[in-house]
Design goal:
The protein contains eight helices and 20 strands. It is of the alpha/beta class. The protein has an eight-stranded mixed beta sheet with strand order 10-11-13-12-16-17-18-19, sandwiched between helices. Strands 4-5-1-9-20 form a five-stranded mixed beta sheet, with no helix packed on it. Strands 2, 3, 6, 7 and 8 form a five-stranded antiparallel beta sheet that branches.
Length: 384
């Protein structure tokens, strides 16, 4: 997709900005411009990029680098005709001690994403039929079709995430709006959300949640213990479907999970027991009370800490002191298992209830923790 970067006018040390953007989205007379700070750039007036001779969808400019520039943080944005600014956080790159290309995939016009419904996905790992999947593609997805989305977040209770008319409580998290707020506010990277709904028999919704989102049978509930089959469904059926349908990065670092209540419990279980797949998990108002609090006493205690996985835990004060106690108990158990404190985030919502409205209101907290603006990728220039 990136294509070769031609070696440009010789200099002691060069940095080539390569903007990848579909030419079909621009008028024939339009050009891309570059503004920024460092390496002679300015935020007040742009530098025109030249269209690549090898690809109509690439624009390039070369910046000269002096020895004193090595190690500085270069920040920049692209503009259409030096007037329409690139949306999202500044592109950022540490100037290296060699000639490189910096690849940017800007978008200029789309501030909202889109939610697609994939109905009745067969769930062979589960004994009770199919699941609906709701996929949120972030603002750039349908504008810059050359761009691969770097972050994918699986979420449970997909019926509650985007649309109040399908939500159990009549209130949706509005995850799409929250992502757009943080992206447009230059606070986070974009993320594609995969919302997996509960069993389509809504009259038995709580029963199915207690079945699929729990790792053990709770004698008091007389149900539970299907979490591994449910997680197998996500891993073996849903994730391959997403990778084959959408332009997403597919390595471990791209993949995260988030859920609330029992969905928070199964997220914690996935992150702790399947660290080869899940690099980050957000557990909101989690039901750590399940089966006499055996997630802390059995799962965390008896499994090695996944040192490369990030955990976010939270709860709301208005949910009551027991949930705080259970959440803190899990936090302390994770630390006792020698999980790095750098990978364990905790947030207390002073006005939070056990409700979709509260989870949606603080959904930006795990986004800010997990998806701060990332450096723009660089690659070596071809040898002369």
């Amino acid at each position: 997709m990136e294509g070769p970067v031609p070696r440009m006018a010789s200099s002691l040390h060069t940095l080539v900005i390569v903007a990848h953007y579909p030419s079909t989205k621009l008028s024939a007379s339009s050009s891309l411009f570059l503004r920024g700070d460092g390496l002679g750039l300015s935020w007040d007036r742009g530098v025109r990029l030249e269209r690549s001779k090898t690809s109509p969808d690439q624009w390039l400019t070369e910046l000269n680098v002096a020895s004193s520039d090595v190690g500085i943080l270069l920040q920049f944005k692209l503009l259409v005709d030096d007037s329409v600014w690139q949306i999202g956080a500044n592109e950022r790159a540490i100037v290296p001690a060699r000639s490189v290309a910096v690849d940017a995939f800007p978008f200029f016009y789309s501030r909202s994403g889109r939610v697609d419904a994939i109905r009745s996905v067969t769930a062979p790992q589960l004994a009770d039929g199919t699941r609906d999947i709701f996929v949120y593609t972030p603002p750039s997805y349908h504008e810059n079709t050359l761009k691969t989305i770097q972050h994918v977040l699986f979420m449970h209770d997909g019926q509650n995430l985007f649309d109040a008319s399908t939500s159990t409580s009549g209130t949706a998290w509005r995850c799409d709006s929250v992502v757009e707020k943080t992206v447009n506010g230059m606070l986070t990277d974009e993320v594609l959300i995969v919302g997996v709904s509960v069993h389509p028999d809504r009259s038995q919704e709580l029963h199915h949640r207690k079945t699929d989102y729990t790792h053990s049978v709770d004698p008091k509930e007389a149900v539970g213990g299907n979490a591994d089959s449910y997680l197998n469904f996500l891993q073996e059926t849903v994730w391959p479907l997403i990778k084959s349908t959408y332009r997403v990065r597919s390595d471990r670092d791209a993949l995260g999970m988030c859920g609330s209540s029992l969905g928070g419990l199964v997220s914690a279980y996935a992150g702790w027991t399947r660290p080869a797949l899940w690099s980050k998990v957000a557990c909101m108002s989690s039901s750590f009370w399940w089966n006499n609090r055996d997630f802390a006493s059995a799962v965390v205690k008896n499994s090695p800490a996944p040192q490369a996985t990030k955990f976010y835990l939270d709860y709301g004060v208005l949910e009551g002191p027991e949930r705080q106690t259970h959440t803190m108990e899990v936090r302390e158990a994770m630390l006792a298992a020698v999980l790095s404190a750098d990978n364990l985030f905790y947030f207390l919502d002073q006005s939070g209830r056990h409700h979709e409205s509260s989870w949606g209101a603080r959904f930006e907290m795990p986004l800010l923790r997990f998806y701060p603006p990332s450096p723009t990728p660089t690659r070596p220039l071809p040898s002369e």
